[in-house]
Amino acid sequence: MSIVRVVSYNIHKGRSATGNRESLADLRLGLYNLSPDLLFLQEVQGRNELRGSLDAQHESLAAALSMQTAYGCNAVRQHTDHGNALLSRYPILQYENQDVSDHRLEQRGLLHGVVEIDGQAVHCIVVHLGLFAGGRARQTQALVQRIKDLVPSDEPLIIAGDFNDWSNKLAPLFVEQLNLYEVFSFSPDGLDRKRFALKQPMQWLRQGFTNDGKVKAAMPELGANGAARMTPPPRTFPVIFPWLRLDRIYQRGFAVRSARVLHGSPWKQISDHAPIVAELELP
């Protein structure tokens, strides 16, 4: 049995929420204090030729945290580029970045790495989906197809990142097609610890939406055994006054020991998003 601490964080290219202050030093310290085993990072600058202090952010974080790293470059500018990064305390066996850009104004990718945890291959996919619903739908289908093609159904999988899915429309798709569940479905940190046995889980899940497709204040979350519990959607953006539910961690093959969104200091000075941290148990 292994306990894996997972953190998902949109780091806003190493700048504070307002963008007027560099925050990498605070980020390094904050992450060091969290002692993560797996880091799923979005909006990471791999190159910054104008400010050396913001260059190769995944490498500087990996060095400070003694972790291995994989970087998926998505958006290339004249003097900079940025994308997703996976940092791991465990060996990274392989990785690939799949371009899922929907149009030239938004460059997006799926960074898919395989790490080895106590002899077990664990698939880790870092995502940052687009701002427009149509693009997100197509990118999600590319993600689903990649998993069906390349991830054996009996191997553990973690997908984490900025889904830009404020209406929570993707969760039923992940449950139905991939047997994936958000970590807050299992976390004992939810407000309501009562569990419900469900004969029709998808019907229950849909009760979390209004007729016009908006997410309600609290919606049912599903567990691997068909159980569910009412939990309020965790809000991660904007960090100063979190209102939108953009960031998620989905998993299969693990037991979830805890999950929480980190608010307050130092996180509100580091990025425009709040990070999510979860402790997963690999049998």
Structural commentary:
With 283 residues, this protein is α+β, with helices and mostly antiparallel strands. The chain has one domain: 4-Layer Sandwich (Deoxyribonuclease I, Chain A), CATH 3.60.10.10. Helix content is 18%, strand content 36%. The protein contains 5 helices and 15 strands. A 6-stranded mixed β-sheet has the order 3-4-2-1-15-14. A 6-stranded mixed β-sheet has the order 5-6-7-8-13-9, covered by helices on one side. Strands 10-12-11 form a 3-stranded antiparallel β-sheet. The termini are close together.
Outline the secondary-structure elements.
Elements: E1 2-10, H1 24-34, E2 38-48, H2 57-65, E3 68-76, E4 80-88, E5 92-99, E6 109-117, E7 120-128, H3 133-150, E8 157-162, H4 171-178, E9 181-182, E10 196-197, H5 201-206, E11 219-222, E12 227-231, E13 247-252, E14 255-261, E15 276-282
Parallel strand pairs: 1-2, 7-8
Antiparallel strand pairs: 1-15, 2-4, 3-4, 5-6, 6-7, 8-13, 9-13, 10-12, 11-12, 14-15
Helix pairs in contact: 1-2
